[in-house]
Design brief:
By secondary structure, this protein is α/β, with parallel strands linked by helices. The chain folds into two domains: 164 residues, Isopropylmalate Dehydrogenase (3-Layer(aba) Sandwich), CATH 3.40.718; 153 residues, Isopropylmalate Dehydrogenase (3-Layer(aba) Sandwich), CATH 3.40.718. It has an eleven-stranded mixed beta sheet, sandwiched between helices. The longest helix has 26 residues. The two termini are 30 Å apart.
Amino acid sequence: MSGPVIAIDAMGGDFGPRCIVPASLSCLAELPSLHLALVGQSSLLERLVAEHGSVDRARLQIVDADDVIGMAERPAQVLRGRPRASMRIALELVRDGQAQACVSAGNTGALMAVARQVLKTLPSIDRPAMVTAVPTRGGPCLLLDLGANVDCTAEQLYQFAVMGSVAAQALGIAEPRVALLNVGTEEVKGNQQVKLAAALLQQARGLNFTGFIEGDGVYRGEADVAVCDGFVGNVLLKSSEGLAEMVGERVEALFKRSLVTRIVGALALPMLRQLRADLRPSRYNGASFLGLQGIVVKSHGAAGVVALKSAIMRAARDVEHDLPGHLREQLERTLAPVGSSAGGG
């Protein structure tokens, strides 16, 4: 096969293959160089693919997996077995070189645990981090971690900052501004881990560390990379998604209040539609797991077809930019001072 192959955990997420299959086929139609491997219950997947009419089967393969990891299962239980689970088989395709990336909307904890076990981490990395782009006044800002690591040491925050900087460079930002998310911008504020991480980042070679940033500073575009632990990152991301949806609903309701507001709303409709399109969470769906020896993208479990397409497209971009390769090179130059004792598995 020519072109990148992306393995899709077709059984994961709240809606499973009935949502994942059409999203995958739509991506194939839009990207002529893309190849996909749908991993799951083959009879069901074949039937769903057939329902969509003409499909370029030369770029689509179905890999059978008769087990599914539930959204509420504990990662420790998953690691003790489940060799036929769709999530594990999709990751093994990446490990064995049969695919260049894996996309799953399944159980986040299980995906992180199995990915670490199957793919291993890059040298000098303790834990992978989840990263995604959030819309800001000055363009997208990469936010990490998003929930994979609720408690983080200063060294791990330092590693996240380096990985986020490399990911931003892959997006075309020559010298990404890297900041630590904190309760204030003053040096005296923050917990001990954040203060220690700041001290490490100030000494980092080749890293454009700009100091602390508050939550509102992220959306003002004051950084290209915002670093925090997974608890803070997840709360910030989910809160911003909820706020964007609420604002959109409130604006629509205001324009329906009277005849005058309906007329004004009709005139403003094109701009409002563009604004909602720019801010909708589905456009930014797909969090990359940075720090693994392979590309893994986690989709929101409740993602619809449009959002799942965004996650698959993100995986394709990560493959195009060879994100793990660039990370490995940068880590060798940057993480040596604090990462010499970190494990690679």
